[in-house]
Amino acid sequence: MKFSKRTALLAGTATVALALAGCSGGTDAPAGSEGAGSEGNGETLQIALVSKGFQHQFWQAVRTGAEEAADELGVEVTFEGPASETEIDAQLQMLRAAIDRGPDAIGYAALDPQACVPLYEQAEGASIPIVEFDAPCDSEYSQNLAATDSIVAGGLAAEHMAELIGHEGQVAIVGHSQINSTGVERRDGFVQYMEENEPDIEIVDIQYGDGDHLRSADIAKAIIAAHPDLAGLYGTNEGSAIGIVNAASELNLPNGQITIVGFDSGAAQIEAIRSGAMAGAITQDPIGIGRSVVENAVAAVNGEELEDFTDTGSYWYDSTNIDDPEIAAVLYE
User: CA dist 35 to 30, 42, 76, 290, Å?
Assistant: First the structure.
């Protein structure tokens, strides 16, 4: 089955990582066992998942959700990803190796939406269905994308930033990528909301730190120095946001002098919000993403019709709701 899920994603969005990667990538042993996913033929379905990272807390939460679904459906999953979200070549090698192993299905989260296209063609030639999670490849050979609607999520961050700074002033963005869709869409959703709804807020700078908290801190300090009247800073992933928090600390800025809004969860951001160093952040549902990609992979193998896009949701959290059960359920440390 071939169709473009990117068209559906764009249509849908038009309507409405301090724990960073370590020194090496990782691979987990299969999870799950023979059961409902085996289609009654005595053989357990094998699903290979290749993520954008491995050791980052977000990706470990995705893995947890995937393994939960695998256990329930009686399939086996492997989960691997590069050490950091800048290691495109390493991720492509993992995808190539997965195709060579010939699993029943592959789940993939693209770091570079262009570089993966030839490998998707290889998977299509081998009749291995691909479902995607978090970020798509620019190929029509995919059955579904399970992800946060990042345009909506970026707009939600902008809406809260605007309220926090009184709907006026200068703000800037420390992004984590100009290439992969999550970085682009979390930025664009924020920018679009401000342009359409907040005429008295000016976005004075957008820079990129690759999700590295050290580089993001340096970028944030430079932005603050260049714009002494800056009212707010938005970090588009965990590393970006914690870099901003660390920059404010290193500059000895009192909490709240610059309103800091982040994205993702993790122990460092949760602590920053509890302490008042960060005003709030957007969290996703990584366990839901992991569950969805496995469920969609099994459905694809079984020949079921799938929607192009599964929106797994996004949520604002701050000191007022961080302990609410519905928010606590989508936070990851």
Answer: 14, 8, 10, 19
**Which residue reads 């122990």 in tokens?**
267
Q: What does each C-alpha distance from 63 to 129, 224, 331 come to in angstroms?
A: 20, 37, 14
Q: What is the mean pLDDT of residues 310-321?
A: 97
State the residue for tokens 């999870």: 31
The CB-based long-range contact list for 245-254 (8 Å cut-off, 24+ gap) reads: 245/269, 245/272, 245/277, 245/278, 246/213, 246/217, 247/216, 247/217, 247/218, 247/220, 247/221, 248/220, 248/224, 248/277, 249/277, 250/217, 250/221, 251/221, 251/224, 253/224
Residue among 108, 153, 103, 122 at smallest CA distance from 5: 108
HSE, CB side, 13 Å, CA atoms: give it for residue 152.
19
Q: Can you tell me the distance from the alpha carbon of 107 to that of 49, in angstroms, rounded to the nearest whole number? A: 5
Query: Which pTM was predicted?
Result: 0.80
What's the first-to-final CA gap in the chain, in angstroms? 37
The pLDDT value recorded for residue 56 is 77
